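Sequence in, structure out. First:
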Amino acid sequence: MKLSIVIVSYNVRRYLDQCLESVKKAIVDIDTETFVVDNASSDDTMAVLPQNYSWVKFVANDENVGFARANNQAIRQSKGDYVLLLNPDTTVGEHTLRDALKFMDEHPEAGGAGVMMHNEDGTLAPESRRAIPTPWVSALKMLGFTKRYYMTHLPWDEPNQIEVISGAFCLLRRKALDEVGLLDEDFFMYGEDIDLSYRLLKGGWQNWYLPLPITHFKGKSTRKTDYRYVHVFYQAMLIFFRKHYNHLSLFYTLPVKAAIYFRAFIALIDLLRQKLHL
């Protein structure tokens, strides 16, 4: 088996439908298996899509177990030499998977690869290339200086080594996964891609950006206007920081932790204002 594709869905039936249509065109002549793990959607995902996509292995969870744990469910069942973690709110280019696999085959030092993500309006998504959020990089980003974090010095039209592969399209070598481990299930949602990317680098593998197109209908699989989103997002930031940088002195860690709490507080205030104006 060449490729195992894993898609985790939650109340995004329409986007998942178009995602699977794009995948069907992209996997022609590739030995592939595709998993959809549904995290107890309340829409008609499981009532409609399994009968339309008989080539997809659907897994229905009784509860929302989170992004990392749901991906791991399918990864443990999968058999491909490569595993692709793919968001349901994406569509992939017809040649994207074939070209990405070719690159990975030709670069055995590559543990994982991400691609050129386009927003719904056609613009390039800066999170296609990201740096590890070290205390210094995190501080710069929170102050509004994002060039280092988004690695803007890299050209868009050439393959380049990067540090963080986006979880929206994360192509992983099975051997690398076996060595560094699966997604950390302490992350319910957000941050698990940063953590896995960091562990790949620490394990001696390379992470790559490839100029191959996908469209990411960003955020359609999450609701960013409720308090749960704010809590989960900033909790993920804290989990990553505590896991990888807690050994540093308070001189380095305290300002970053304070900034995370401050940004979370500001986000909650903004949400409250939005609610009051509805």
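Second:
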Amino acid sequence: MISSDSNFIPRPGVINKQGCLPDPIELVCVEVPKVFDQCLIKRCLKYHDGPDTNCTDEELRSNPLNCPKIFLGCRDFNIKLLAFDKLPIKDHPEYSKIIIHFVISFTADYLDSDGNHCSEFFEINRCETISRLYFPSSIARIASTDIPDSSDLESEILKLELVAECLDGTFTKDCDCNEVLDVTIGFHLIVKCELLVQLLIPAYGYCPVPKPCRPITPKDPCIEFNRTPAPKFYPDQKLRPLFSNENDDEDDSVCDCPCDED
């Protein structure tokens, strides 16, 4: 698409109109991880003693606590991939059954009876199985001189992306009558199969030098206040319409006005 604007400067931004970009100046070959397949795993986990299941995890109970009082929430979720097993599927050699082993860690905050802010670190070991994932093998082998004493780099990449939140925290007592914290978490986990590939893409050359950072001048709060419109003094009324819409059923469109009666 050829742009008629001669003042166009290549920069990151949203493309919201057609015909506003000039022709690229070159085709470049870049080496990037490309996603070949991915799937989403969604779990809500509560504490339960015994083997882990899709709904429970025995590591969601803290160590004994000293006079806990108020649960504040969780923060600093992190994930670490420990290992994965790739098992071929019969009659579908390019697809594989993937078993992943990973650790989710986070910190839970609470207040004790004296009002002190306390924290407890959690680490849960999980294992998930993806029954079918397109996981082709790379033909090329990769070695790099950027890493000292480097051996062949793994060209097949399994990547995990985690979004997690703390849903609940309850203080209770364990079998030894110690006060502990049981946490309930929910997480969305994306499992991606990536291969390091070379892609040919159109480009506009190197990015230009950006504009200097603009300082922010403090504004007079009274001026800003006088510019803002007056607020709504009353909330919106939630009333049923006096007359029905034309799209309503015929029975609902009948008016109950007494003047219509003979």
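Remark: DSSP finds one helix and seven strands in the chain.
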